[in-house]
C-alpha cells in the first residue's frame, strides 16, 4: 500500500478511539497544568514536567496517527510511557480531584496507546 493510499483509508475504530483518548488526555493535562500554576502552594516540579511531557506526546501522537505516519506505532509506545509517568505523578496528590481525573485520563490513554503500539497501522 502506498503512503497516499494509506492516508485515504478510513481510520479503524481502535485508531480513532486512540486519537480521541490522546486529544482528551492532552486537554486535561493542559487544564491541570494551568490549575497547578494557580495553586497557592507550588505543585512539585516533577508533576509539572510529567504533565508537560504527556501533553506534548499525546498531541503529537494523535497528529501522527491522523496522518498515518510510519512512526506512529513507535510514537504510541512512547506516548503510553509518558501517560503512565503523568498518571503516577498526578497520583502523588491523591486528594486533589483534578489530579485524580487527570491520572484517570492518562491511564485510559496509555492503555489505548499500548494497544495501538502492538497493532499494525
TrEMBL record:
Transmembrane segments: none annotated. CDD domains: DUF326. It comes from the Bacteria. InterPro entries: Csp_YhjQ, YHJQ-like. This is Four-helix bundle copper-binding protein. It comes from Streptomyces cathayae.
Amino acid at each position: 500500500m502506498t503512503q497516499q493510499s494509506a492516508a485515504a483509508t478510513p481510520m479503524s475504530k481502535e485508531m480513532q478511539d486512540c486519537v480521541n483518548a490522546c486529544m482528551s488526555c492532552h486537554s486535561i493535562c493542559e487544564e491541570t497544568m494551568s490549575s497547578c500554576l494557580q495553586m497557592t502552594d507550588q505543585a512539585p516540579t516533577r508533576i509539572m514536567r510529567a504533565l508537560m511531557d504527556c501533553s506534548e506526546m499525546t498531541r503529537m501522537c494523535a497528529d501522527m496517527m491522523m496522518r498515518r505516519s510510519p512512526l506512529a506505532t513507535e510514537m504510541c509506545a512512547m506516548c503510553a510511557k509518558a501517560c503512565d509517568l503523568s498518571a503516577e505523578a498526578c497520583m502523588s496528590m491523591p486528594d486533589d480531584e483534578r489530579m485524580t481525573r487527570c491520572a484517570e485520563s492518562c491511564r485510559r490513554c496509555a492503555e489505548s496507546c499500548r494497544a495501538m503500539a502492538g497493532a499494525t497501522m
